[in-house]
Every structure is written in structure tokens, then in C-alpha cells.
From TrEMBL:
InterPro entries: GlcNAc_PI_deacetylase-related, LmbE-like_dom_sf, SAM-dependent_MTases_sf. This is GlcNAc-PI de-N-acetylase. One of its GO terms (molecular function) is hydrolase activity, acting on carbon-nitrogen (but not peptide) bonds, in linear amides.
Amino acid sequence: MQSYDDVITSKGFLSDLKALNKTIAQSLTKAGLPVIINGNVCYSDKDEDFNKGTLSSLMEPKRKALVAMAQRSRCFVEVGIAGGHAVLLALHANPDLKAIGIDLAVQAKPSWPRVDIFVPAATEWLLKRFPDRFSFVKQDAIDGLREVASAPAFGPVDMIHLDGGKLNRMDELAAIWPALAERGYLMQGDYKNGNVRASTRAMIQCGLAREVPEEDLPPMRHRTFKVVEIGPSVLAQSVRLQDFRGKRVLLCTAHQDDELLFAGGLLSKIARKAQVHVTCFFRPMKGRADSDTRIAAMQRLCAEVGVSCTQYPFAVEAPYRRLRRYIAQDDTDGAAPVSLLRPLESHGLYPTLLETAISTLRLYEPDIVITHNPVGEYGHLEHIFLHRTMMEAARRANITTLLTFGAGQEHRAGLSVTYDTRRKKRLFKHYRPQWDGLKMYDFALDPERFVREPLFPT
């Protein structure tokens, strides 16, 4: 691995830097404009005739951080590519790195340098110089990131530089999240801006990001930037069992027995350490052998464990359309991605269910919410329905920590909870003899898993 000094003084980088700067300068001169561009990792903002000057000493910490990130990454996405200097430096720091630049290339304010002139010139030069390692998306930040996420040209993204607008950084992270590698780096440009600082704090609070361990790395923070680690593995590792101590925990289930099947062991472990409330949204289905006993069974179980509970009166049955007209899966094992045949918002129960979920979250003000997962554990449509509802409710209520049951999503990392299986087994007595989950579900006494979902506040 080359040192920063080796990269920045290499003949290859200096030759390409000179050629890129010449291209930018010629494009501006040809348009009858002064040679001025936005500030970047190499030059100060609006530094006239930057191409005749030296690299900015103020930006050296950012250049060092960028080189360190690039040398540990495979796919780099930059929002606000401007003159392309960060991409050029990153590609020279790591010959295996590939990069995608996103820029609208529109002069939004008269005071801005003429990005509409020099951005196209710079990106055209980069495309010719690195035809197999660079691509360009001429879009605004969010639409461009969504385009990249929908079809990642160079594989999972593990390095991001957000250096465009300052108001929507959380939305930008949300747009690229589906394309992220398990772990990567996010460099927040313009870190001295209050909105950028606030968005970084929110990312960390929501578990989407964490501070970068600085072992063997240059400083990852300066007044001009901050680097954090991001990705699904970062999110998965952000919750530990000890984090439940002293917290308000709200467990939201579709049916009576779900609290036992998916979280009975966890409830037993945290009941004395946290303030726990169980909320069941759907009443028992009519015509079952245990239709008249399930609510009382849940209440007895919660009382024995030492948590409070509430039963809501909703039911996903007539006069509403069947959920299978709204939700579909590609297979029947519960692990396939879910697709919507119709917007869930058009389901007759959804508006009431959503408002109730939001009101419940605002009433209990939980630190941690636990509910069903995106695939409904084993493909249960009502579980999926409640999951989608709770996710939207959590966003609207500004919940930062939402966990889903791990059953059916074993491919995702999460919190694994071991417990006294004998105690959980005894809890099934409350539902017997009408219902025996131990015989029906082979996972009933497995270690319980909980996966933290990415929440991007609205």
C-alpha cells in the first residue's frame, strides 16, 4: 500500500492532474470566463487560475483521509464531483478502485463558478482517461444515487463522498443504502455547516453510521470534513443486549402468541431491566379452537413474565380485500423478497392501523421498538402488513431504534439472544391445550434473533 506522499507526488498522478486542470481551464477560457472552480480536495474555493497554483494546504487532511479510504475500498461514489479532483486522487491511490460521479452540472446561483461549463469537460476527460473505471450520472444527488442503487455498475458501494447540497444528507444516504457493501466509509464534506453536522449525528443515533476507529488511519475528522463507517453490518452491530437496560421497550405484534414465539426468551431476560409493553394489533380470527382464549392467554403470559400488554380490536378480514391481493412473495418459505401488487395505503384498514401505530409510539415514547420483519418470518401476510405499517409509523414518530424478528432473515446479521429454554417452554402452557406452538414451529426454542432496520426520518 502506497503512502500518501507516494501517491500525491507520483508521476502518474501529477501528469493526470496537469492534464485534467488544463482541460478545465480550456473549457472556461473558451467560454470567455475566468478560470475559477469550486473548492475541492486539491484547491481552495474560487481560487482564480487554480491550475497555475499549488495544492491547498488547508485541504491536505481531507486528501490524506480520501487516500486512506480509497486504499480500503472497491467502489467509490461521489456526489458533487465538480472538477473531478477527488475521483482522480482516489483512482490513483488504488488501482483496483472504480468510481461513479454524480453532479447536476447546473449553476444554481449566480455567485457559483460555472459548473455547467467545467463539470462536463472534467467528466468527459475522466471517462476517456479511465474508460473501465469511471462512470458519470448527470442528475441531482438523490435521483442520481437512486439510479446508482438500482443498477450498481461496479458492484457494492463501500466509499461515498457527499459534497453537494447540505440540507438532505440523510435522504442521500437513504437513496444509496440498498447498494451499500456490508461496511464502508462515508465522507461528509462541508462539515462546518450546521445541517451537515446535524445529519451526521442523526445517522449515528439511528445506527446507520459510527465513528471510525483511527488505528493505522490518518485523522478522519477536520473542520472541513468528517468520515464515518456505514453499512448493514454497522447497523447490525449497533444494538447489544445491555442496551436494553433502563430503556422503554415496545413490542408490537400481529397476533397473540407472536410475543412468545419470537421474543419470549428476550422478554424474560429484560423484563426486570427495562420498562416493557406488549401491544397486539389484531384480534383473534373467528372460527378457531382458541378464538375465545388467546387474548386471556397473552395477558396471563405477560403477567407471569412481568410486562404490561394491550390488545387492539383490528382484524384483516371482511369487509376488506384479502391481503394476498396486495402482497406477494416469489416462493413459500418466507425468505423471498416481498413485492406489492397494490399500494398498501389503498387497503381499507391501513389508514386506521397507521394512525393507531403512530399514536401508540407517541403514547409510550419507546427507546426501542420490536416488531415483525419484511418477509413476515415465515411468509405470514399479516406480519408483513404490520411490519410495513410500523416502519412508516416509526419514521413519522422519529423512532431511532426498530428491531425486527430474525426468523426468516437468517442472511442478515443481528442481535442473537440465548435464554433459559426450559422457562420459555413453560410459558407455552398459557396457550394450551387449544394451541401448541412447540409442535407447530420447529424454531420455537431456537436462539432468538433481532435485526435492526434502517430508519431514515421523514
